[in-house]
Predict the structure.
Amino acid sequence: MDEKSDRDAFSFLESESVQREITRIEEEGRAKVRQLRDLAAAGEQLNEVLTRGFLPLYTLHLLSEMPRHGNDIIHEISKRTEGLWQPSSGGIYSLLKKLEKKNWIKGEWEEGATRAKRTYSLTPLGESMLVSLLDVVPPRVAATYRALELVALDLMGNPRAPGSG
């Protein structure tokens, strides 16, 4: 390349249009980061609803299938919800303590390969509570599901530009 071609190429790289494109891409990137942070916050709020509303019942349900330890409950919920809901270990272990105090479950220590684990199972009182809850809960779960579905359809079907409404 001759000197004039070098200058033309260099001036092209520093042109206003390139700078405008760089600025646009940077702003777009900042907007995407904000969106991802908002999604993470919304996910935390949804997790809070699931944890408060469904975790005790779902834990009793899982324990009705077989005795489990806390981490097993967490992994099983995550697996069954395709990773969309994974309760925290702090949340699950505090719940297990509460359920044990109510005598709905009992915990027993087992020696594991690396350390002892506390395995939980339903008590007769817990089994009867689960049966009672399952008589009452399905209509409420169905109503909650339908309400979430309608809200989601409304939000996704009627997008609003910020500041338009």
In short: DSSP finds six helices and three strands in the chain.
